[in-house]
Design a protein that fits this description.
Layout lengths: L2 E3 L9 E4 L2 H10 L7 E5 L5 E9 L4 E9 L8 E7 L5 H12 L3 E6 L6 H4 L5 H17 L7 E2 L3 E2 H7 L7 E5 L8 H7 L6 E6 L7 H9 L3 E3 L8 H17 L1
Parallel strand pairs: 1-3, 6-7, 6-11, 7-8, 7-9, 10-11, 10-12
Antiparallel strand pairs: 2-5, 3-4, 4-5
């Protein structure tokens, strides 16, 4: 069954009202759905329903709830990606691929080597955050996930490191090009509970400074290697997520 996401405000007791212009265009234009068609609608957090389209127009689509669905994230592994802000549009692809591969949360971080003009001014523009959240929603829909990964506001590296105290991760992994012995696979096999909560830190172009890595290690993180080749920043996060999913899910 085709599926879309809708905000919590769209859900009523037995009726769902879709008023977002992009969602209306997707349902009517891309999917070419019409009155009477069935559609699975999820709020991306805790509720999903099988629905039937009862009315469709240029400004709204009304759906009648036919059945409540068991909301399942579908994965036992929770992964948070701390991504050092890269140049240009690379973050778009990082968000898209990480969502497809099963990430639960993406936190853009401004590191010493984050060099975009926006980062030098001390902040991530809200329009970029909105764009990444929209990309996450589209990727979740395309890959038939029930939930949408959270994309957080851009934070500083120090905020990210200090915030580890309150996160209760089972393990915090730092992909570091100078680590030569301790592999990601070995780190996961050392200490994984049945439902692991994992954080992954990826540096921007040029990687992390040694002082940044030392700070993360002081908060309990472990440095790991994923092989002899050096991965680009837009490749490293999705690759690490795929490796983690292989070790913990398959």
């Amino acid at each position: 069954m085709r599926r879309i996401f809708a905000g919590e405000e769209a859900f009523h007791k037995y009726v769902i009202q879709i008023t977002d212009h992009d969602d209306i265009a997707y349902i009517s234009g891309v999917l070419r759905m019409k009155k009477g068609d069935m559609l699975l609608v999820s709020d991306g957090k805790s509720r999903a329903c099988e629905t039937r389209i009862t009315a469709i127009s240029k400004t709204a689509i009304e759906l009648r709830v036919q059945a409540e669905c068991l909301f399942e994230a579908g994965r036992k592994t929770s992964i948070t990606l701390y991504q050092g802000m890269p140049k240009g549009a690379k973050m778009d692809e990082i968000v898209r691929k990480s969502t497809e591969l099963g990430v639960c949360r993406i936190l853009p971080i401004v590191t010493y080597r984050s060099i975009s003009a926006a980062n030098k001014k001390g902040g991530t523009p809200p329009e970029k955050i909105r764009r990444w959240r929209r990309i996450a929603e589209e990727a979740a829909r395309q890959s038939r996930r029930m939930e949408i990964p959270e994309v957080g506001d851009g934070i500083s590296f120090l905020e990210a490191a200090e915030g580890l105290i309150n996160e209760n991760y089972d393990i915090v992994l730092v992909l570091f090009e100078l680590e030569e012995k301790h592999s990601l696979k070995e780190a996961l096999r050392d200490r994984m509970p049945e439902f692991p909560k994992i954080a992954v830190f990826i540096g921007p172009e040029g990687g992390f400074e040694q002082e940044e890595v030392d700070l993360l290690v002081s908060y309990g993180a472990v440095t790991v290697t994923v092989g002899e080749t050096i991965l680009r920043t837009e490749t490293a996060g999705p690759a690490a997520i795929a490796m983690i999913m292989y070790e913990t899910e398959l």
